[in-house]
Amino acid sequence: MNSNDKGGKCPLSPRLRVYFIVVCVIVIALVVFFASRASKDESTGGANEMTISAFSAEEKLIAFTDSLGQEITIPQPKRVVSLMGSFTEIWLLAGGKDTLVGTAVDTQDKRDMGLPETVVNVGTYQSPNLEAILAAEPDLVLLSSETVRTDSHVSFRNSLAAAGIPAAYFSVTHFPDYLNMLEICCRLTGNQQAYEENGHKVEAEVKEAISYYKVPHNPTALILITFSGGVRPQASTTMTGGILAELGAKNIIDDYPSLLKDFSMEKVIEIDPDYIFAIPMGYTDEEAIRALTVSVEENPAWNVLTAVKNKRYHPLPPEKFMFKPNNRWAESYRYLGEFLKNNPTDTND
């Protein structure tokens, strides 16, 4: 019999005894750690689990991507500031009236939305008042992505970020842009019925207008903005240019983009578009009409144009073609479509 088998015992080697002791120490440490964690959770009534549950259930985190490509995830906002009149209206159309706490001054100047007196003025679209915004304690600020091109707004954006205030940037030029922002705002307000009323319903009306008013043969058109400094044509990338293109007309700027930088009435006479539309722009209606008259209608070459001679020249109301029409977008399509339909081109022009 081997001496190591004496008494049925198998003594461990010194190395194995060391390993065994280390393992026992680790096991005992783990048992003590988990026992203490269980005791802590029991004494706090499961506070950790309740905190996580409350955050996911009550905060209602909403994720979306804005026009700058920012991926934003925030709880449902309770205090919102809008720095653009059309964005303020979109927020209201999404059912956010009770959460609106601040707006830019152009909201009151250009749009009558019946805002509560509690909504404070936080400056202008071009020059927002950071102190007024911070005093309003918003948990979301709505801005135009166009503003980030200026140094002052880059600084403003950094200030909001430093204050921990989420800022969402949007660009609304064409009707699909409006639908996109409205859909996001409706998710933020939790009011999906508002999207059905002010989104899907308007979308159906726009499609119906395009189908009914679309003109054949792609007549040519020129769109002008008139202001105190002169005249500026509009491309198809603008709101009115996009509507006109969807209705079947061809913007002459698409073929002659140089007119955007160097507008020439002589070149317009040479092209001789079938239609001419002008949007008068000014601080007041009187200034807008004066700019239109001086810049365009008093030009000696004006009456030479085929569109003018055949009464296919028409000023467009700014409220439908300068300011974003939002839930009235179909009205802008119908307005322009009616003029095209009632003033068809003549092949003998």
Poorly predicted tracts of residues: 1-10, 29-57
User: Whole-Å distance between the termini?
Assistant: 125 Å
Helix count, DSSP H or I runs of 4 or more residues: 14
Major beta sheet, strand line-up: 5-4-3-6-7
Please tell me what the overall shape is: globular
Helix content: 40-55%
* Mean pLDDT figure: 82
**SS strand fraction:** 5-15%
How large, in whole angstroms, is the Cα Rg?
A: 33 Å
Give me the secondary-structure category: alpha/beta
Biggest sheet details: 5 strands, parallel
- List the secondary-structure elements in sequence, H or E: HHEEEHEHEHEHEHHEEHEHEHHEHH
Report on this model:
With 349 residues, the chain is α/β, with parallel strands linked by helices. It has helices at residues 14-43, 47-58, 85-93, 105-110, 130-135, 151-162, 175-189, 192-213, 239-246, 265-271, 285-297, 306-309, 318-321, 329-342; strands at 62-65, 71-74, 80-82, 100-103, 120-121, 140-144, 167-170, 220-227, 230-233, 250-251, 275-280, 313-315. The strands form 3 sheets. Strands 5-4-3-6-7 form a 5-stranded parallel β-sheet, sandwiched between helices. Helix 7 runs antiparallel to helix 8 (192-213) and helix 8 (192-213) packs parallel to helix 14. The protein is globular, with a radius of gyration of 33 Å. The termini are far apart. The relative contact order is 0.09. Residues 1-10 and 29-57 have low confidence and may be disordered.
